Amino acid sequence: MAEESAVLTAGPREACGVFAAYTPRQRASSLIYVGLYGLQHRGQESAGIATSNGETVTVFKDLGLVSEVFDEPALAGLDGHLGIGHTRYSTTGSNNWANAQPAHRQVGSTSIALGHNGNLTNTPDLAERLGIRGASTDSDLMAEGIARAIDDERSDQRGLEVAVMEVAPTWEGAFSLVIMDQGRIIGLRDSNGFRPLCLGSLPDGGWVLASETAALDLVGARFVREVAAGEMVVIDAGGVHSFYPFAGTDPRLCIFEFVYFARPDSQMYGRGIHAARRQMGERLAAEHPAEADVVVPVPESGLPAAQGFAAASGIPYADGLVKNRYIGRTFIEPSQTLRDRGIRLKLNPIPDNLRGRRVVLVDDSIVRGSTTRKLVQMLRDAGADEVHLRVSSPPYRWPCYYGMDTSDRSTLIAASLDVEEIRDHVGADSLGYLSLQGLLDATGVADAGFCAACLSGDYPTDVPENADKFQLERF
Question: Are 193 and 170 a contacting pair, CB within 8 Å?
Answer without folding.
Answer: no
